[in-house]
Amino acid sequence: MEIVSREKTKKRMAEQLPMDLETEILCRLPIKNLTVFKCVSKSWNRLISHVCIPRITADVCILNLYRLHRKIVPELCDACCLSDKMPELNYRGSIPKDRDNKACYREIDCCNGLSLYMDEDICRYILVSRSTNQYFDIPEPLEGVKETFTALAFDPVQSNDYKIVLPLHHLDSPCLDIFSSDIGKWVRHIVPGDWVKHLLVVDYDITYYKEIKWARKTVYLDGMLYMLTLEKHLVLFDLKSLVVSAQVIKVPCQTGICRAGVIGQIRSVLYYVNYNEEYKLSVWQFDYHNASGSFWILKHCISVDDMLSENQAILHTMKLNHQARPCRLFEPYGIHPLLDIIYIALQGRVYSYHLESHKCELVWQIDRCLDWREAFVYAFSYSYVNVKDFRMEDHATKSTRDVKLENVSD
């Protein structure tokens, strides 16, 4: 007679559970515990990664509020989670103190759940994934990064690799220094074109100083890095090809009354939000391969007066002069990555506006006052994909000098 242990019985029972019941049970667990159970088996890893976590986090959105540090480099100054499903995550956590007590790292960018920190004094970066508790010290860049804009590129749907992109304009030829976790080193790519004059320029003013014409966050989709400039141009970098290329495209709403607007993605489609000449919030979809020849398709046109008339419950949250209500009341501040929602700001408050139901709600009241020139909101959802550890490869032992000698020049 075969003696069956309790552990074997439990294993057999688990294997006999219907898939939908197994999914339902796992989805009731705290998300931190759920990520630990990915190591139980390959089938559980697939089920948790591709079914359970996307289901649990489908409506979870984190808002990061950035301001321009010294009016040049973005810096995270506040964060808010618009769900109670993930209270155990620290959305504003700092770099562990035992890493380098002398360093002062600031979060300067985030992309699909990854955060990029920089210490401008020692010209170093640290990459952080809060959901998987991964920390990576990035090798020293080829050039100093003090007060220079840097972008993070990560798409967990495509790969667990990530890139750090550093545009440089002060060299003989315009180029991008790109760190890739796939090869574990920085590589210099010369990128011809007029993108430099749109993106990187030194400009002094009595009241305002800017080193870059970039504004309102970058977006990374399907190997393309999109940057919106303050002068209403979209700079595209093709990072998926061996030879990196750039293109500059005008965005809609080019009238003088409009500011830069904001870009973001909804379900892997790029959108641009800004006011048109009639002071209506316009939502444009970007279609690179549009047969009509235009890159932009107008999807929504929103009257602020109509918005307030349909959502009078939010009027008590505002300090308005009803006798002379301004046409341009809200500033576009962000786009929800999964739902048809845009975020607009007024008087230190952030509101969500659903593009289909036309419902507007106050979702975040910030202690500090928002300034359109020096702050923006980046909305994102966390990824629970373990990012690639470039330190496990042989190339991680190469020195910075070795990396510099292997730069790509064309």
UniProtKB/TrEMBL annotation:
Signal peptide: none annotated. Residues 17-57 form the F-box domain. PANTHER family: F-BOX PROTEIN, F-BOX PROTEIN INTERACTION DOMAIN PROTEIN-RELATED. This is F-box domain-containing protein. CDD domains: F-box_AtFBW1-like. It comes from Papaver nudicaule. Pfam families: Beta-prop_AT5G49610-like (PF23635), F-box (PF00646).
